[in-house]
Amino acid sequence: MTLNDQPAQGTVQSRSSAELNIDYRARRALEEAERAERKLRELQEQCSELNSARVRVRAWEKAHGLRLPADTTHPILLIVAAATRLTLAEVLEEQRARVVGAEHA
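User: That's the sequence. What structure does it adopt?
Assistant: Structure tokens below.
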């Protein structure tokens, strides 16, 4: 390294804190946008008429970190039906199918 290759005295070789803050904010905004996009896709999956009741209920479970209860009178079944755009009868049928599937497993 020659004298001409060295940084001038008093200059900062690393990035300034202002630049780092801008990068951090930009990265956080990108992460937030990705989270919002993922949440929208999950919402679309749980209520898309192109998906079966099974897929829609599983998408609802994944989005909320919950499992469909085994109790056929549980009040959350109405909420699941509304969120997935299924009828209560369809949600109950998915619930019954799981019980039958578990018995045969």
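Helices lie at 17-47, 53-64, 76-84, 88-104.
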